Amino acid sequence: MWANIAHFFYGNSLYLEGHLCKHMSLQVLPPELMEAPKDKIETKEPQPYWKPSSLKDGESEEFRLLGCYETGHAIVGWQYASECRDAKTGDLRFNGYVVTRNHPGQPDDIARETDWSKPDRPKIDGTFVKPRRFLAWVATSAARGRLEVLFIEQKSLREQLTEVLQEIEDYTWTDEGLANFSIKISRKGSGLETTYSILPKVRKVPEKVKAEWEKQKDTIWLPNFFEGKDPFDGKQVDEKGLPAGGVDKRGATVMPTTKTQTTEEETEF
To answer: Residue 148: CB partners within 8 Å, gap ≥ 6?
Structure first.
């Protein structure tokens, strides 16, 4: 089943619209990407989450991917910084991020660009910060031994991940939806000279991790991003018992916290 998911990525990328393979048992990309945006929800990034930009030059982090779009573990969308007027001063100030399923265009509340050449870092009227496409994927961290959300905005990393998932003979998935491999994300350089890379490594999933996955699989739901809710609050329902948002019927799964062993080969994550 999970080999079919990886096969789907062949010839496609997570950042491009495309047609979903009819023979797949699971749908990976959100269908809303093919539709006009219906609304926008202001949200704050939940904890714990991780962005590749948090790495410093020469640093790397290792993760195990969990699940896919149809199980509520992987989504793609757009994010932009917003501004609002301060009630006391009347000045525009940063007001968090807005997440949308589709490109938001140029909304009225989009934040202005910053003039980084000046010490006081003033905003530049008449400009705006471009919205950024992102891929969010549930994963476990080898360094922190916990469940996290990878929030990937770098186009190059999405392309590299697509290439990894094409190698379906080497990098497979368990029936429970756990990757039989890890990915090490590395950063090199700084500023405009920054580059990122992904290195996969085959890692069999321990039985203990599989058992814990089954116990805790309903406690995370990434589509909560689009409803302004914390993905770690799990799948939401309204007063009628319907999924929050009204249409999604996908389940959500979570990876347990595991202890880091003294040797790399014994690491359970």
So the answer is: 48, 49, 50, 63, 138, 139, 140, 141
Q: What is the pLDDT of residues 178-219, one digit of tens each?
A: 899 999 999 999 998 999 999 999 999 878 777 777 777 778
| Residue 180: partners with Cβ closer than 8 Å, 6 or more residues away | 171, 172, 173, 174, 202, 203, 204, 205
> Does residue 181 sit in helix, strand or coil?
strand
pLDDT in tens, 244-258: 433 333 332 323 333
Give the position of tokens 């950063």.
187
Across 131-155, b (16+ Cβ under 10 Å) vs e yields: bebbbbbbbbbbeebebbbbbbebe
Structure tokens at 16: 């491009």
Domain ranges of the chain: 2-266
The answer to whether residues 96 and 44 touch, using CB atoms and an 8 Å cutoff, is yes
